[in-house]
């Protein structure tokens, strides 16, 4: 017969897909630069949610920089 574990085990750390934190700010855009700073601060603090949200904002905002014909 096996003995069940009677103590808490260490939490499992899951990896994050790197693309979730990617995003290249558009040159000269203050909004993109602010989001990039926010992402970088969040990464240093280990706040993955804030970093991911800022990176997503950069990726989606970049579409607004395309020139329209």
Question: How would you characterize the overall build of this protein?
Answer:
This protein is mostly helical. Helices cover 45% and strands 0% of the residues. It has two helices and no strands. Helix 1 runs antiparallel to helix 2. The longest helix has 16 residues.
Distance between the termini: 74 Å
Poorly predicted tracts of residues: none
The run of helices and strands is: HH
Let me know the largest β-sheet. Answer: none
Our Rg estimate from Cα atoms comes to: 19 Å
Structural class: mainly alpha
**Count of helical stretches:** 2
Mean pLDDT: 84
Percent helix: 40-55%
* Residue share in β-strands: under 5%
Q: What would you call the shape?
A: elongated
| Number of beta-strand segments | 0
Q: Which helices and strands, and how do they pair?
A:
Elements: H1 30-45, H2 48-62
Helix pairs in contact: 1-2
What is the gist of this entry?
This protein is 45% helix and 0% strand.
Notable traits:
single chain; 2 helices; mainly alpha; about 70 residues
